[in-house]
């Protein structure tokens, strides 16, 4: 018998080629699997709540794994695992879940935050997007509210991805200004590859006056990625929350 565990982690994605294991590139998943396998002295495979892209960060991320050891939910284990992991990956919590609970498929929503700094800041070069052009945040929020009227976001999806549907239900999408930062928060039941960065890049075009609200709406209706704006850089994107029905 094996026991399934959920692990809450955070990571700075600058040095990684995303979450998912891939040949000839270091990923967050690979680093965690190796550390867990060494610590538990068994081959451990982990499943993450999503596939973050190269350079994307997570202040809140959930993964699950199965182990023959049924009693590792201790502060000592978290402390030991953190000692194995590099400084840009941290573990906050571990707990037992039912064997059919899944980090990815059991999630009911995910929330991302995109951070733009409007001034040059040497301490944010890897965790935000420096964008100093004048933006109309009210127009950007007006355009963002259009997202609630749609479910098919093909226009903001990476081309040739392997998903069966491009439908998503968006629950929240808004811009906020905090000091010298513009922050975009978006929550949905699921996200497509590159979706948030494509939305941000297109909303920036609205904020600069290069796209009208109607043109933004038309981009979504046409379901053509070629019509949307350039994707915003990965450095500004954070996964900040994942909700589950029983947690």
Give a written overview of the molecule.
- This protein has 247 residues and is an alpha+beta fold.
- The protein folds into two domains: 95 residues, Pseudouridine synthase I, catalytic domain, N-terminal subdomain (Alpha-Beta Plaits), CATH 3.30.70; 125 residues, Pseudouridine synthase I, catalytic domain, C-terminal subdomain (Alpha-Beta Plaits, 2-Layer Sandwich).
- It is 23% helix and 27% strand.
- The chain has five helices and nine strands, in the order E-H-E-E-H-E-E-E-H-E-E-H-H-E.
- Strands 1, 2, 3, 4, 5, 6, 7, 8 and 9 form a nine-stranded mixed sheet that branches.
- A hairpin with an 8-residue loop joins strand 2 and strand 3.
- The longest helix has 13 residues.
- It starts with a strand and ends with a strand.
Kindly report the name of the CATH homologous superfamily of the largest domain.
Answer: Pseudouridine synthase I, catalytic domain, C-terminal subdomain
Q: Give the radius of gyration.
A: 19 Å
Distance between the termini: 23 Å
Largest sheet: 9 strands, mixed
Strand content: 25-35%
Arithmetic mean pLDDT: 94
Flag low-confidence runs.
none
Number of strands: 9
SSE topology string: EHEEHEEEHEEHHE
CATH fold-type name of the largest domain: Alpha-Beta Plaits
What's the architecture of the largest domain in CATH terms? 2-Layer Sandwich
Domains, number: 2
